[in-house]
Design a protein that fits this description.
By secondary structure, this protein is an alpha/beta fold.
């Protein structure tokens, strides 16, 4: 029987020299916010948003629930790090050290094999962007958010911060004050993309933050699969990720948003994702959360139109010293709406894994259907797995179900696999991969392979 692949520990946890064209001094102030806007040569309306968000950040309180984030001190974080290159449309023009980073992560190969377009961000700026010619002919717009602000200001102003408002919570206010980089996608009416688009975010600089903003509009009867990848090397001091994703899925459109996050174990991952889904439209979230010291991430779907749908399929992995707090939120507004949530969490070596769900069904959302299913797998006696559901159902014409299961790895299954010739390490890894299969089967083949590789990295030497 084939032995389970031994992972390469250095595939993600390599680091390059902290080489930059400009690195903002640490801290958060009006001076810093204005300097970020000046560096980007932004229009006045964007600076006004930043300054308004900064005031909100100082007014808003830290969350009173969830993991302890008191270790995070903005005085120790550089909010903007400009790499030593402008954005390139040719891979050969990217500086060698940055190019080498993305080569090791497999980005150019993925682009050649199964992507319609790709963006690569290094620290605070997108350094590479390309899209297949046929998409341009169809009117698809895929570019970095900074270019979109200048080239498509009317579209950006119509949607920017309209899905996730500035005052949503303290860290989204921080995001809007200092955001940099990210992606902008517009898919015209009736255009259906056969191949995915992908943006990859790499944070290399120590004691810094990454605050990319992703804004996607899928117009009526159009469809898109967008893939997001994230990683960072490990440092001894805290790094921060506080990105934002705003999705607008118009009438009868479809969007699949897939994420594989593999942050380092010194990262505070305080990301925000939200979708507005209109009549007959559907958004599907596929989410794999690995790495990071603390994660607080809860993708949200607003089912605004009649017949709108959403599905969430996610997995999280918490190891030693990690507190991974993830989940899903949905609000049913339109009639005949439906939502389906399937979550898997794994904890080992004293890691803490928490799943939170929030379901709200409004008074006029007749015939709404919602099902939430979350499973937790603990690999030892030191770990912890919690499920914290919340529901607010405001009419009686609904079908709602919630199921949660938490347990340890089965000794009977281990014994059976040992009897078939596997080592105990490989047997446990095989069971964990089977547990995670509902997520991996929703990913394109190469990304499913990457997720299994990440599981191997997490399990190596621990079971």
């Amino acid at each position: 029987m084939k032995k389970i692949e031994k992972p390469n520990q250095n595939m993600y946890d390599f680091k390059k020299k902290d080489n930059f064209a400009y690195k903002m001094k640490k801290g958060l102030s009006e001076e810093i916010v204005r300097e970020i806007s000046r560096q980007k040569n932004e229009p006045e309306w964007m600076l006004e948003i930043r300054l308004k968000a900064l005031k909100l950040y100082h007014k808003l309180s830290l969350p009173t629930w969830g993991p302890d984030i008191s270790e995070l001190n903005m005085d120790d974080i550089a909010t903007y790090v400009k790499p030593p290159t402008d954005i390139k449309n040719s891979w050969n023009e990217v500086p060698d050290d940055i190019k080498d980073t993305f080569e090791k992560l497999g980005i150019p190969k993925a682009e050649r094999d199964y992507l319609a377009g790709v963006g690569a961000q290094y620290d605070s700026e997108v350094v590479y962007h390309s899209m297949k010619e046929e998409l341009l002919k169809q009117g698809v717009i895929y570019t970095d958010i900074d270019s979109a602000i200048k080239e498509y200001p009317q579209i950006v102003q119509e949607y920017f911060s309209k899905c996730v408002p500035l005052a949503d919570h303290k860290f989204i206010a921080l995001h809007y004050a200092v955001f940099s980089g990210g992606s902008f996608v517009y898919v015209p009416k009736g255009v259906k993309l056969e191949m995915p688009l992908q943006s990859y975010y790499r944070l290399n600089s120590p004691e810094s933050g990454q605050f990319e903003h992703t804004l996607i509009v899928v117009d009526e009867d159009a469809s898109l699969h967008f893939i997001e990848g994230c990683s960072a090397p490990k440092y001894s001091k805290v790094n921060l990720h506080a990105g934002c994703v705003e999705l607008f899925v118009k009438k009868n459109a479809y969007l699949r948003y897939s994420t594989i996050e593999n942050w380092s174990k010194n990262m505070f991952n305080l990301n925000t994702k939200k979708a507005m889904v209109y009549d007959g439209a559907q958004v599907d979230w596929i989410s794999g959360n690995f790495g990071s010291k603390i994660s607080m991430l809860y993708p949200m779907s607003m089912l605004l139109g009649d017949g709108a749908k959403t599905e969430y399929t996610g997995i999280s992995f918490a190891g030693n010293g990690q507190n991974i707090d993830t989940g899903f939120k949905v609000v049913h507004v339109g009639k005949n709406t439906s939502s389906l949530c399937s979550s898997k969490s794994i904890s080992k070596d004293g890691g803490i894994s928490t799943f939170r769900s929030f379901v709200k069904i409004m008074p006029n959302a007749q015939n709404a259907k919602c099902s939430v299913d979350c499973d937790g797998l603990m690999l030892d006696d030191k770990s912890r797995s919690d499920t914290i559901p919340a529901s607010d159902i405001q009419n009686n014409d609904v079908i709602f179900a919630h199921e949660a299961k938490v347990g340890k790895i089965s000794e009977e299954k281990i014994f059976y696999l040992l009897s078939r010739g596997l080592s105990e390490q490989d047997a446990k890894a095989l069971i964990v991969k089977g547990f995670a299969s509902p997520v991996s089967k929703e990913l394109p083949m190469e990304y499913a392979v990457e997720m299994n590789r990440l599981i191997n990295l997490e399990l190596e030497g621990s079971i």
